[in-house]
Amino acid sequence: MSKPLITIERFLLSQQPEYAKGDLTTLFYDLALGAKIIAMQTRRGAFLNNLGYEDTTNVQGERQRKLDVSADETIYKLNDHTGRLCAMVSEEREDWIRIPDNFSKGHYVLVYDPLDGSSNIDSNVTIGTIFGVFRALDEEKRGRIEDCLQPGRNLVAAGYIIYGTSTMFVYSAGHGVHAFTLDPEIGEFLLTHENMRFPENPTYYSMNYGAYPSWSPGVKKFGDWLQSTQQPRLSSRYIGSLVADFHRNMLYGGIYAYPADVKSPNGKIRLLYEAGPMAFLAEQAGGYGSTGVKAMLDTQPDHIHQRTPVFLGNRSLVEKAEEFIREDHKG
Ligand code: AHG
Ligand code: MN
Ligand code: MN
Question: In what order do the strands lie in the sheet with 310-313?
Fold first, then answer.
């Protein structure tokens, strides 16, 4: 007998307990709609004049590409008025985002990287969107910065959308990681991967070895260990889109790392809306996420655009990275 076709809507409803079949479920619907809109903007890139740069830089001093800005607008506009959120944080906006006073507020906080892997946009290489959802610390109040600055351990849900050879929506609400593939003919996300887990034996490592000369001694040793010590040997794959590198490594086993280096002592990846949500997914898939020193999910953000070194993937490999990096912190 052939397998049933399960839409994302049906799956979400079947997963949520009765009391939760409300705001969180509908927030996911809106994110799935955002995924379709951004996938369309991505696919039609050049025709919509969507490639290249805006004249602006974001708060991290990075030049904004047109798709960074339009993806941010898409997610913002789908979520500001729904009454489900009390605050948002976007990579592309300097301050945390208040829900306009003319709209009612909800209990959740949405943190997001609208377009991850921006440097890959104009060369037709896989990019993504990352999101995380927290519950407000005080549900009575309108959103506050404290509601945004929560450690990943408090995430209610997290996920990413991957714009690759197909578009996929991958999420966890704390009961495993599930993935849906967009059937572009019918415009629906259909369940294709239930309960994704890192395979026990890893296959890949993903690190930008171009930065090797700037790595600390511990990171260098870890980089060398990945290349030489493993039996059977791991292969190197590095796309330069965290979403794409993580997704492949979750399917085949492996590690994605963006360590600190002498030029960026806190690394490049942002804790709140990139590393935290991905570490939540890693743990939900039987893996682990670390700063190199401790669990990513136990790291309290002090400001919304804080950066952190990142190690994500099979627990055995991430713990090995911690072993080497701890040496850097000894005396
Ligand atoms: P973003 O496009 O949201 O700024 O993030 C890009 C990140 C991450 O996705 C990727 O792994 C990394 O930057 C690539 O950086 P390098 O080019 O320095 O390797
Ligand atoms: Mn990113
Ligand atoms: Mn981005």
Answer: 235-236, 204-206, 254-258, 310-313, 288-290
Residue 14 Cα to ligand 2 midpoint, Å, equals 31
CATH assignment, 204-330: 3.40.190.80
Which of 143, 111, 31 is closest to 275 using CA atoms?
Answer: 111
Query: Whose atoms come closest to the Cα of 117: which ligand?
Result: 1
Q: Is the beta carbon of 179 within 6 A of some atom in ligand 1?
A: no
pLDDT attached to residue 19: 59
Closest residue CA from atom 15 of ligand 1: 240
Give the start-to-end residue ranges of the domains of the chain.
8-193, 204-330
**φ and ψ at residue 33, rounded to 5 degrees:** -65, -40
The phi-psi region of residue 267 (left if phi > 0; otherwise alpha if psi is between -120 and 50; otherwise beta) is: left
Tens-digit pLDDT profile for residues 65-93: 889 999 999 999 999 999 999 999 999 99
Nearest ligand 1 atom to alpha carbon 130: 3
CA 239 to ligand 3 centroid distance, Å: 15
pLDDT in tens, 225-266: 999 876 778 999 999 999 999 999 999 999 999 999 998 999
What CATH superfamily classification does 8-193 receive?
Fructose-1,6-Bisphosphatase, subunit A, domain 1 (3.30.540.10)
Which atom of ligand 1 lies at the shortest distance from residue 256's CA? 11
Task: Look at strands 157-163 and 127-135 and give their pairing.
Answer: antiparallel
Q: Tell me if the pTM is above 0.85.
A: yes
Q: In the predicted model, what is the mean pLDDT of residues 6-33?
A: 86
| 204-330 shares the fold of 8-193 | no
Question: Ligand 1, residues 57, 65, 118, 207: which to mutate, most atoms within 8 A of Cβ?
Answer: 118
In this predicted structure, the answer to whether residue 56 has a pLDDT above a threshold of 90 is: no
